[in-house]
């Protein structure tokens, strides 16, 4: 390992030129999408005109893949009999390995994890060895524990051949083992923002060596309110880093984050920019009343359990519903287990293992499992409760049909969900699915009411009898702390794909050699700290919010020396009121 002499000696030995043309006129991407059949629509928008630059990868056995992925990565790929990359991998690998900042927009289950992990392994192996006290070279930020653990499993599997060490940092687990891994030194760190901030504040790790930053599921992290933590973390990373952002949707909040953190980035869109579901999923919507759902669920499970492949995830809206439904189903003999955010990390891991290995083929879950849960052979997803927005619906059903496979999603849709009817119809139409006429009627009635008030004889329609407050949408939505505003991802215009100048710090892919060494291309990061003399902003008491901390976000509180605290004064007995006269 690392007998290549590092960047200084190998430089462009993999056939790359000095990176994409940074002038931005004809050699940059103009926000165009790429089709999903693995072919390239580069045309005049080619990135990198010279050398052996690979525009896209069609097959893992071809010559182009051997140019960009080294032997220790190919060995793992060959052992798994993996022949064809997914479209996002075919387009993403060459860009990531060229050193270019990039944004990848693709649906769930499209192979995004390996799209950034394999280039990360190549990147790390071209860097100097870690020394004592160094932090990770590659940092992956993920929104949930489940997603972080999933990425860690892939990183361990593919990094083992080149002896790369990785660790997973997330809340809800003991800090001791995580601190021990960081102190021993790891090249790859997969972390949730909250726990990483804790360790940075405590001085357990640092980001001075980090040159490869990945923001996975960026839209989900913003939904969960992690933006101030993300900005604080990115402030600690050297500005000549390579940054990759991955998301399933492209709302304006994610676009703003990309403009702030990425420099002259390339955007890859697999599929549509607006909200879209995996076309390999058969979507079936049953319009019914709340009281009918449980009987319909039992009949549906009786059919599913007769199938040979019968792993099923049932999504519910609340933790209480999850516990109640799990208890009733287990009482009736169904092999079901439940998972939600209030369960301990140990119990969550145990439940997921029981589900993955088929001991309990029915998993009842809240949205804690709607992202990051990657079980290859999930064939069915049932939305027992429809979520508060169609974006969560997309991610729920995305737990099936992973890695180009097929799956089926059943949804119970009630009059209480009428607010989401038109959005769901749009999702079904985009995926060329058959639409329940009752759902169409519900969407039309909802549209008529929104335009024309209460709408005539609405009260007389039996289908919508009962409650008309739509299930207390405002009250139910706040349970998970997400923004309950209107769904902003629908109808996102294609002009959103443009890229701006990104950072204004003056780093435009140029080399940072100040000690007489040879120039580095965009895919070559110099040794730290001799070349860039970059010193990250330190975690100091009372430090004001930095340039990237955003507006309106107070600075984080950091530990400082405290004077010995005085013992509190003794408690004074409380004077009892006089006894009430008899």
Automatic annotation (TrEMBL):
<feature type="region of interest" description="Disordered">
    <location>
        <begin position="1"/>
        <end position="33"/>
    </location>
</feature>
<dbReference type="InterPro" id="IPR014001">
    <property type="entry name" value="Helicase_ATP-bd"/>
</dbReference>
<feature type="compositionally biased region" description="Basic and acidic residues">
    <location>
        <begin position="443"/>
        <end position="478"/>
    </location>
</feature>
<dbReference type="Pfam" id="PF00271">
    <property type="entry name" value="Helicase_C"/>
</dbReference>
<keyword id="KW-0694">RNA-binding</keyword>
<feature type="compositionally biased region" description="Basic and acidic residues">
    <location>
        <begin position="1"/>
        <end position="12"/>
    </location>
</feature>
<keyword id="KW-0378">Hydrolase</keyword>
<feature type="region of interest" description="Disordered">
    <location>
        <begin position="442"/>
        <end position="582"/>
    </location>
</feature>
<dbReference type="GO" id="GO:0003724">
    <property type="term" value="F:RNA helicase activity"/>
</dbReference>
<feature type="compositionally biased region" description="Low complexity">
    <location>
        <begin position="553"/>
        <end position="565"/>
    </location>
</feature>
<feature type="domain" description="Helicase C-terminal">
    <location>
        <begin position="296"/>
        <end position="443"/>
    </location>
</feature>
<dbReference type="InterPro" id="IPR000629">
    <property type="entry name" value="RNA-helicase_DEAD-box_CS"/>
</dbReference>
<dbReference type="InterPro" id="IPR001650">
    <property type="entry name" value="Helicase_C-like"/>
</dbReference>
<comment type="similarity">
    <text>Belongs to the DEAD box helicase family.</text>
</comment>
<keyword id="KW-0547">Nucleotide-binding</keyword>
<feature type="compositionally biased region" description="Low complexity">
    <location>
        <begin position="481"/>
        <end position="496"/>
    </location>
</feature>
<dbReference type="Pfam" id="PF00270">
    <property type="entry name" value="DEAD"/>
</dbReference>
<dbReference type="GO" id="GO:0016787">
    <property type="term" value="F:hydrolase activity"/>
</dbReference>
<feature type="compositionally biased region" description="Polar residues">
    <location>
        <begin position="20"/>
        <end position="33"/>
    </location>
</feature>
<feature type="domain" description="Helicase ATP-binding">
    <location>
        <begin position="93"/>
        <end position="268"/>
    </location>
</feature>
<dbReference type="GO" id="GO:0005524">
    <property type="term" value="F:ATP binding"/>
</dbReference>
<feature type="compositionally biased region" description="Pro residues">
    <location>
        <begin position="566"/>
        <end position="582"/>
    </location>
</feature>
<dbReference type="InterPro" id="IPR027417">
    <property type="entry name" value="P-loop_NTPase"/>
</dbReference>
<keyword id="KW-0067">ATP-binding</keyword>
<dbReference type="GO" id="GO:0003723">
    <property type="term" value="F:RNA binding"/>
</dbReference>
<protein>
    <recommendedName>
        <fullName>RNA helicase</fullName>
        <ecNumber>3.6.4.13</ecNumber>
    </recommendedName>
</protein>
<feature type="compositionally biased region" description="Low complexity">
    <location>
        <begin position="504"/>
        <end position="513"/>
    </location>
</feature>
<keyword id="KW-0347">Helicase</keyword>
<dbReference type="InterPro" id="IPR011545">
    <property type="entry name" value="DEAD/DEAH_box_helicase_dom"/>
</dbReference>
């Amino acid at each position: 390992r690392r007998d290549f002499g590092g960047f200084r000696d190998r430089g462009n030995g993999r056939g790359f030129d000095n990176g994409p043309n940074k002038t931005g006129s004809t050699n940059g991407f103009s926000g165009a999408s790429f089709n999903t059949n693995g072919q390239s629509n580069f045309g005049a928008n080619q990135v990198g005109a010279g050398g052996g630059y690979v525009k896209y990868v069609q097959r893992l056995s071809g010559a182009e893949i051997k140019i960009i992925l080294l032997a220790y990565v190919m060995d793992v790929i060959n052992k798994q009999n993996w022949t064809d990359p997914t479209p996002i991998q075919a387009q993403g690998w060459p860009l990531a390995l060229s050193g270019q900042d990039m944004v990848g927009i693709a649906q769930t289950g499209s192979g995004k994890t390996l799209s950034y992990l394999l280039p990360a392994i190549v990147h790390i192996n071209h860097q100097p060895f870690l020394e004592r006290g160094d932090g990770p070279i590659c940092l992956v930020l993920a929104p949930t524990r489940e997603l972080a653990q999933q990425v860690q499993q892939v990183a361990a599997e593919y990094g083992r051949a080149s002896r790369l060490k990785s660790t997973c940092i997330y809340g809800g687990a003991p800090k001791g083992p995580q601190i021990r891994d960081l102190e021993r030194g790891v090249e790859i760190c997969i972390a949730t923002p909250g726990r990483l901030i804790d360790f940075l504040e405590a001085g357990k790790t640092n980001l001075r060596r980090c040159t490869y930053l990945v923001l996975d599921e960026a839209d989900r992290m913003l939904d969960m309110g992690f933006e101030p933590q993300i900005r604080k973390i990115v402030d600690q990373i050297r500005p000549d880093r390579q940054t990759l952002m991955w998301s399933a949707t492209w709302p304006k909040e994610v676009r703003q984050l990309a403009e702030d953190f990425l420099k002259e980035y390339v955007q890859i869109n697999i599929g549509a920019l607006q909200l879209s579901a995996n076309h390999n999923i058969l979507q079936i919507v049953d319009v019914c009343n709340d009281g009918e759902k449980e009987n319909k669920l039992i009949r549906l499970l009786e059919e599913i359990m007769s199938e040979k492949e019968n792993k099923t995830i049932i999504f519910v809206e609340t933790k209480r519903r999850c516990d109640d439904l799990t208890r009733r189903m287990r009482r009736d003999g169904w092999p079901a287990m439940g998972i939600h955010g209030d369960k301990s990390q140990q119990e969550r891991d145990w439940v997921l293992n029981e589900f993955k290995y088929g001991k309990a083929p029915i998993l009842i879950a809240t949205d804690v499992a709607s992202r990051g849960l990657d079980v290859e052979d999930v064939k069915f997803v049932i939305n027992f409760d429809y979520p508060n927005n169609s974006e969560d619906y997309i991610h729920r059903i995305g737990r099936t049909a992973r890695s180009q496979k097929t799956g089926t999603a059943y949804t119970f849709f009630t009059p209480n969900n009428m607010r989401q009817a038109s959005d769901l119809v749009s999702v079904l139409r985009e995926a060329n699915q058959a639409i329940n006429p009752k759902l169409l009627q519900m969407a039309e009635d909802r549209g008529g009411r929104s335009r024309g008030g209460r709408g005539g004889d609405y009260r007389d329609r039996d289908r919508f009898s009962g409650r008309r407050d739509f299930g207390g949408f405002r009250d139910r939505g706040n349970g998970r702390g997400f923004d309950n505003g209107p769904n902003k991802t629908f109808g996102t215009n294609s002009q959103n794909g443009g890229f701006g100048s990104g950072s204004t710090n003056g780093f435009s892919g140029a080399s940072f050699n100040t000690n007489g060494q040879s120039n580095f291309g965009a895919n070559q990061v110099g040794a730290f700290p001799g070349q860039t003399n970059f010193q990250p902003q330190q975690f100091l008491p009372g430090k004001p919010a930095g340039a990237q901390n955003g507006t309106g976000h107070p600075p984080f509180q950091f530990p400082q020396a405290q004077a010995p605290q005085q013992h509190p004064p003794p408690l004074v007995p409380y004077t009892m009121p006089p006894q009430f006269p008899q």
